Amino acid sequence: MFADTKTTVVFGEALVDDFITEVVVGGAPFNVARHLAAFGAAPLTITRIGSDANGATVRAEFARFRMREDGLQVDAVAPTGRVIVERGEGTHRFIIAPDQAYDYIEAGAALAAMSRCTPATIYFGTLAQRANDSCYALTQLLAATPARRFLDLNVREGQVTQRCVFASLHHADIVKVNEDELGNLFSWYTHARPCPTDMADERLHAACAILIRVFGLTGLIVTLGERGAVYFGAERFRLHAGAGDVVDVVDTVGAGDAFSAVFLLGSALGWPLETILSRANEFAAAICGITGAVPADTAFYEPWMTRWLAD
């Protein structure tokens, strides 16, 4: 199915969310990579784990999803990425540990892995750019290929600087943000201050056009949760897709990663943009109906593959 398509390169953190009572594998890039692998896209996942028990847990996910490991690096010193999750009443507090293995992704090994494929798209975020080594590795990868760049912006307090966001936006072709992050971009890079939740506001459209022009983007995707998503193109083109139906929302963890994965999948397969957005929203909504960012049983993907990939 993907024999004639180029490779999606996914760069960034693979980590574990430590709920004290259980450990769950996560990290936005790794969630995206697992979804793509389950759909048969065989992404190149460039990340770094420690030589420890959590690293073995992450590696087991590589095996479970039959993922290629040529982009996986193992650090003999730094531990596998870990986020401590403290549950509260209706909320969670996330403590993101410093100096983790994904902070030390080596440029040379990453470039060697990418040289063995023909990249179509490089997916990246901002958390793995907080440290010099991984940030340098990413810039080297981006410089080595003309592949399209998909930035999944994730503004986490204390983990990303405005300087990093600025550089990432200049690297990107397509950027995905949520409404809060869109508000940040308006505040930082435009004189406009439209409400980032009112997608019908012409002032918002004009502010998005400024962002697209200033950073040379081809597309800006704004995810709207239960309201779906909006795509702003370089030609002031706007396309809205409603959210998929969810009977019972279990949690919204990983919904954005699911959206990104299907957007990348549909782009690789040449689906029309409207179809891509509709299916990305539909799959993201379905992920909200399960516990966690990825399904515990890979059979979850079979109906989607039957419907979408039969041809």
TrEMBL record:
Keywords: Kinase, Transferase. Signal peptide: none annotated. It comes from the Bacteria. Residues 22-294 form the Carbohydrate kinase PfkB domain. One of its GO terms (cellular component) is cytosol. The keyword Transferase applies. GO terms for molecular function: kinase activity. This is Fructokinase.
